[in-house]
Amino acid sequence: MSDLKSLKTIPLSVVDHDRDSANLTYVYPVISRRAGGVSIGINLNPNNACNWRCVYCQVPDLTRGTAPPVELNLLAQELHGFLHEILHGDFMQNRVPEGMRRINDIALSGNGEPTSSAEFAPVIELITKLRASVNLPAEVKTVLISNGSLMHREVVQNGLRGMAKINGEVWFKLDRASAEGMARVNDTHSTMDKVRAHLIIAISLCPTWLQTCWFAVDGVSPSTQDEDDYLAFVAGLLRDGHHPQGVLLYGLARPSMQAEAPRLSALPKEKLDEFAEKIRALGLTVKVSD
Predict the structure, then answer these.
(1) Rg of the chain's alpha carbons, rounded to an integer?
(2) SS3 call for 185
(3) φ and ψ at 169, to 5 degrees?
(4) H-helix or E-strand spanning residue 72
(5) Phi first, then psi: what are they for 168, rounded to 5°?
(6) Which one, of 123, 121, 130, 110, lies nearest residue 72 by Cα?
(7) pLDDT tens digit at each of 290 positions of the chain
(8) What is residue 105's three-state secondary structure?
(9) What are phi and psi of 104, to 5 degrees?
């Protein structure tokens, strides 16, 4: 186990989601601007491998692939030790700005697609046991931040069932709602039929939010077609009785580490707000963070 006493003393920031900020293999703390507090990250992809390559991804040396085998005992040691430190030690006072000193969630995110881990369901079981062992308040969520591409797998579905029992949420990536848009933004060749099927699985097993990154490329905002595709996709879901919790709409807060980085830029907040209102008109809650 890495030594928790050697935690870095640099204050945490919303613009720096350093996966090594606690000197641990799997566990890292970040301040989430969307969550409004400290998120305890679980990185199941320390090999920087993902089955997608989103152009805005801040992971350096990103490679195509899946999560390596998880050392469950090490993860348990790290998470238990860090939870104890953040609940009973001086981590909050030393590392976290005032106004953000609350645990918002435990988030499976990290440096690649977490559901690509063969141990995904056992990891959820481990988190469930550790939450109980330290009496973590029920309002502290367990969040899966996922591109949704592997929801058809039994190990993933079993994990989502477990998450639903511990106030869990899925944040399901939907940056664009056309095959062409996903190829451009996420560098994947998925079809919208597959995205829809996987999203329906997620919604059926665990409360699910759509998470959407909206940004400019070469100074140009997402097109009217991009907006129309997105709104039509969401409207179709709702019409057929599949109701996500809402949409987490956000812009670029941290620099991309991909080749396209110089071409990307954040949109003015009013642009995000305008699109948010169009989504709200469908009857969904929208949370905006620029």
Answers:
(1) 18
(2) helix
(3) -140, 145
(4) helix 72-88
(5) -85, 160
(6) 123
(7) 344 544 454 544 444 444 444 578 999 988 876 556 888 999 999 999 999 999 999 898 899 999 999 999 999 999 999 998 888 888 878 878 777 778 889 999 889 999 999 999 999 999 999 999 999 999 999 999 999 999 999 999 999 999 999 999 999 999 999 999 999 999 999 999 999 999 999 999 999 999 999 999 999 999 999 999 999 999 999 999 999 999 999 998 788 898 888 999 999 999 999 999 999 999 999 999 87
(8) strand
(9) -95, -40
According to DSSP, the β-strands at 103-108 and 37-42 are: parallel
Output the pTM of the full model: 0.89
Q: Where are the beta strands (DSSP E) in the chain?
A: 27-32, 37-42, 49-50, 63-64, 103-108, 141-146, 168-173, 208-213, 216-217, 246-250, 264-265, 286-289
% helix, strand, coil for the chain, step of 5: 35, 20, 45
Residue showing tokens 């592997």: 150
